[in-house]
Design a protein that fits this description.
The protein folds into 5 domains: 93 residues, Udp-n-acetylmuramoylalanyl-d-glutamate--2,6- Diaminopimelate Ligase, Chain: A, domain 1 (3-Layer(aba) Sandwich); 208 residues, Mur-like, catalytic domain (UDP-N-acetylmuramoyl-L-alanine:D-glutamate ligase), CATH 3.40.1190; 133 residues, Mur ligase, C-terminal domain (Protein-Tyrosine Phosphatase, Chain A, Alpha-Beta Complex), CATH 3.90.190.20; 220 residues, TIM Barrel (Alpha-Beta Barrel); 125 residues, Lyase, Ornithine Decarboxylase, Chain A, domain 1. The two termini are 23 Å apart. Helix content is 31%, strand content 23%. Helix 2 links the parallel strand 5 and strand 6. The chain is of the alpha/beta class. It is globular and about 90 Å long. The structure holds pyridoxal-5'-phosphate. Pyridoxal-5'-phosphate (PLP) binds next to helix 24 and strand 31.
Length: 822
Amino acid sequence: MINLTAKQICAVVNGELFASSSFQDFTVSEVITDSRTFFGGQNVAFFALTGPVFNGHNYIAQLRKKGVQLFIISDKNFIDDKANYILVKDTGLALQQLATYNRNQFSQPVIGITGSNGKTIVKEWLYDLLSAELKIVRSPKSYNSQVGVPLSALLLDAQYELALLEAGISEPGEMQKLAPIVQPNIGILSNIGDAHQENFQSKKEKLNEKLQLFVDAKKLVFCLDRPYSKPIAKFCLGNNIEPINWSFENDEATIQFKSKAAANHTKIEAKTRNKSYSFQIPFTDESALENACHCFATIVALEKIPDVFLERFSKLEPIAMRLEIKQGINNCLLINDYYNSDLNSLGIALSVLKQQAAQSHLHKHVILSDIHQTGIETAELYSKVNQLLQEWGINKLTGIGEALYKHQYIFQMESEFYSDRNEFEKHFIRSNYSSSAILLKGARQFAFEQISALLQQKAHQTVLEINLNALIHNLNSFRKLLRPETKIMVMVKAFSYGNGDVEIARLLQHQNVDYLAVAVADEGVQLRNAGITIPIVVMNPEHDSFQNIIDFNLEPNIYSTQLLHQFAKVVAEFGLCNFPIHVKIDTGMNRLGLKTEKEIDELISFVKSNKHLKIQSVFSHLAGSDDPELDDFTHEQFTRFAHLSKQIETAFDYKVDKHILNSAGIERFTDHQMDMVRLGIGLYGISQTGLQLQQISTLKTTVSQVKTVNAGETVGYNRKGKTRQQSRVAVVPMGYADGINRRLGNGLGSAFVNGQEARMIGNICMDMLMLDVTNLKVSPGDKVEIFGPDISISKLAQLLETIPYEILTGISQRVKRVYLQE
Ligand SMILES: *Cc1c(COP(=O)(O)O)cnc(C)c1O
């Protein structure tokens, strides 16, 4: 943690201080950039970061209420006498300057890690291997971005003996900014893969960018068995860096490895210049092996004696990279984090807890294991934990572990303590858990996944897993195609194309999209009730729903003269003025919309003489924007829209937004973005032009039963699934009532079981389907994927001769939606 006065910070960032003279000595020990994850605390400075879609200045008032007194800003219009400000040109740069300053105060070794894959795992494993010997500070989770790296570097202080910082990049030019903040003494280049390739010309360009992190390093750890090892060696030579390279093939390497995989572990032999070592890791996959080799080589680079650490390699654990949010019993929400347990990560997890609890008005309950943090006396450690829990307004604590049990007197909230997990489970009563957001935060060995299993709602094992990071990726991919000022309306109709509306709408609101659009008013009401405040357009406003539209501040799509008159009448009854409406023009789809010049003239004269309504936007919908054969027609639609919308635009003295592009339109006719675009299917990961999008959802379940079926027997209803040979069949608890199209049965469709493809056999039933798993390794409880990373939704749509929209929206509401976010 830093410890600097406002005046010192001002000097470091080259700013201008607007504060009372007594405030200049105010000390800052915590820096924040995200208002969502801050709920109280003193000695805090907020950096109001700005980006193309984000303006941190907008959160100043809110944060002032929460007690923040110092703001680093770049817009002087926000200066007032209600708080204290440091004015700078660029707040992002100021954050980096402060982080660099703090890094320069740190005289102990810093290990900097970059690469396409494995950064976080290598960092966490090194921590697990070394932390019994050294006091280590490390980047929380995968804080490796332009903001995450400075925030991590601000955690460095004199009490630590080693720092582990990871740095990630997605665009050229980014590493130059991160390098001075990290300034590693020892570098690790984990792996150069395809991740984040889209913004680089070539892998070589990306490699060169990554290497910029290490220009001032003394040593660099890397693998020699990769195609790119030569340029890395050259880079080391040119920059006077000692290469600590390793290899399975090359006798010249600093460290030569041999490995032998067994059923559930891998034996590794390592040969350095003067000695041989052997150890094992409890994994058998290639990437674990690679990560372990990086860790061993880093220990060599640190000039530590490897023998001390060998035993610990066999105890390395998989690293769950994400906080998992699940539906729990009795209207509880579970937030699982068995990733690590230290104060930093506890802070992050608590912020997520607070956020989730606030959104659904739930109690905040933390189930916490003993924290193994070196270098701090136990009573002091738990006093800090108590303080953290209080700051975050935690209602209840369940402490599990000897140390917590012993120090229970410290905690000042409703609490209960158990000496170990078994004790907890003995006293577990289901009905004690209701309407709470529960954070499960435990060190690995406490096996909190067992507690999670108790608390998890298990009515139906089938889930649609939605990756919110992929969704953000997709949103940003579209944003990059657009001008910065073009507004975005995201279509969240039909439960966000089947992906579940509220969580997605929340995320979109946070990502500053301009509008959401729903099909009917009820969907809009649900979003308002869930705390969505941005404008919401109702595409199909029915007469019965006008009251709701007005009460919940929704904005109707006006597609006919009749609807216009009806709606105006109700608004007038409410006595409201300038109620926003969106006018739909039919330019060739022949669905909803005003079609003729005459209708539009009538609309204009009606609205002009009616103070109750205001035309917020005018729009039209393309009939075939995804189909090159229809491009002539699409251009006719553009022309017609230009003509008819102009009529409206020129008739009013206020600005009327115009928009026509849907997802495929944005990809294929970017020039027609006008004032706004309406993004739908693309956000959910389907591209018509090969734009690099990520599929956001995985439909999955687990095998219920596996059985042997003899040759000549049949499987399922009407005996449609015949077996020619003795076969093995897996029964899967998912059927057409879940939205699996029944036509996929009888061999048309397949599923992935344990990463192996298995064809469907027999008719699909209402709640079950059967897979032919002859010759595959499958047992009950194994994971089954219907679509996801291994089976794309587009492929499934092709198989069924339909469109991805139908597949997505067809997944029934009884399938639980589970959200993942990094
Ligand atoms: C659903 C919808 C969209 C989004 O279409 P995609 O093809 O999913 O991008 C855009 N505009 C209107 C009017 C819609 O109804």
